[in-house]
Write a structure and sequence with these properties.
The chain has 13 helices and 18 strands. It is of the alpha+beta class. The chain is globular, with a radius of gyration of 21 Å. It starts with a strand and ends with a strand.
């Protein structure tokens, strides 16, 4: 049975709220038992138990549980969270145990098996890069094997995807869909979050501004978009200091907490067989959670060669540099690009016409792809998901876009990782 559950942002906000220590202990014990019941390796269950007892760890553990329902012995496939990186916050020992588990898993298909193994090998390398800031993988480096296995598994997954795309099924996978009831975005909470964010930025003396969908709402509707679920804000790279932000969040006494900090871990093949992994000094994205449970995505904007870009370990969006002007956002006043039409046209094309569906991974005119291991695994899974849904044209668009960006190369009808 295939099941798809639409995201409930009310539930996400409930999960995102900070929990006291006794509740987190209960989460840990429940996670341990639940994952063992689903057939997870012992090391993964232990790792998840420890993670669930950390602040905000339960959300990742819940996603792991959903992943094991999908990939384990349970006769249900759940693709609602199919793009989840199973290696997130997972120890190296748990990653290796799960790689062995995937090799012996007869229930999943070859694409899933190999793309998830690529995720896990990539996660092992990225964690080491997190610790050191840069890795030079020569033939003598102990992690060179992991990099080779990452590439090998990624290419097998892409080969399977290419074969299925050359002869797509005429019948999409039958799926039972469960939709949420009503909207869960509370604008009153959003106004309070913006006001509290302004106070924190004022204390830090950092100029800040709204971007992406939040800025679109401010310009087109002078309010948040009706289908919004988070707040998009930006600061400039030279102004940002993670330690100062952490201190300010701590001083907020529960008004804010940091959900995650994301660095771009770039992979660069060199002229010989060596491979370089490296990170920028500062993170590119910090997810902040307000006391209401609302998430604010703080994008650190980087200016390079006249281009101002922001993004994640997967995507980046390029804009011309801009000055700031005031805008109304419901009850609040915010700052955004002074030439709103130019900025929004870069991001959305015809931004004046509301659209029901907008894919931020491929539809923005200014989309680029980060040359990271996260980008290629995530976007390959997106393409595969569209193929399973019977949308071969959209799957083809993803792969063609990755080829144009130099992330993938094509040999006849078969794509491969351009690593």
């Amino acid at each position: 049975m295939n099941i798809e559950v639409e995201k409930s942002y009310g539930l996400l906000r409930f999960i995102n709220r900070p929990r006291p220590w006794p509740v987190r202990i209960l989460y840990g014990l429940m996670s341990w038992c639940g994952l063992l019941l689903l057939g997870a390796p012992l090391k993964v269950a232990k790792d998840s138990c420890c993670l669930a007892m950390k602040p905000n760890g339960i959300k990742i553990v819940i996603r792991r549980i959903i992943w094991f329902v999908h990939a384990g012995w349970f006769p249900i496939s759940i693709r609602s969270d199919y793009f989840f990186d199973i290696s997130e916050k997972m120890s190296d020992g748990a990653c290796r145990a799960l790689i062995a588990w995937l090799k012996n898993n007869k229930r999943i298909d070859d694409f899933d098996r190999h793309v998830w193994q690529a995720d896990l090998y990539g996660g092992i390398i990225e964690r080491e890069c997190d610790r050191t800031g840069e890795l030079m993988l020569t033939d003598q480096h102990p992690l060179k094997v992991e990099d080779e296995l990452f590439c090998r598994n990624m290419n097998v997954a892409l080969s399977v995807l290419s074969q299925k795309l050359s002869a797509p099924s005429q019948t999409p996978v039958a799926t039972k869909k469960f939709q949420k009831s009503g909207e869960s975005f509370d604008k009153r909470d959003a106004y309070q979050a913006i006001a509290d964010f302004r106070k924190m930025m004022s204390d830090l003396a950092w100029p800040w501004y709204v971007v992406s969908g939040t800025f679109l709402g401010a310009v087109r509707e002078q309010d948040f978009l009706g289908h919004d679920y988070d707040i998009d804000v930006g600061v400039d790279y030279p102004d940002f200091d993670l330690e100062r932000l952490q201190d300010s969040v701590k001083a907020s006494e529960g008004v804010w907490f940091i959900k995650s900090v994301s660095y771009c871990t770039f992979r660069e093949p060199l002229d010989d067989s060596d491979v370089r992994y490296y990170q920028m000094e500062k993170p590119i994205l910090v997810k902040l959670v307000h006391k209401t449970g609302l998430v604010a995505d703080l994008f650190v904007h980087v200016e390079e060669n006249g281009v101002l870009w922001h993004g994640s370990p997967i995507h980046r969006w390029d804009n011309d540099s801009f000055e700031l002007a005031e805008y109304r956002l419901g009850h609040e006043t915010v700052y955004g690009a002074v030439d709103a039409d130019h900025y929004l046209t870069e991001n959305y094309g015809d931004w004046r016409t509301p659209v029901l569906e907008f894919d931020c991974s491929i539809d923005p005119p200014n989309i680029r792809y980060s040359r990271t291991v996260r980008a290629v695994t995530y976007l390959a899974k997106v393409a595969y998901r569209f193929l399973l849904d019977g949308d071969a044209d959209r799957a083809q668009r993803y792969l063609t876009s990755l080829e144009a960006a130099g992330v993938l190369a094509r040999d006849g009808q078969t794509w491969r990782f351009n690593g």
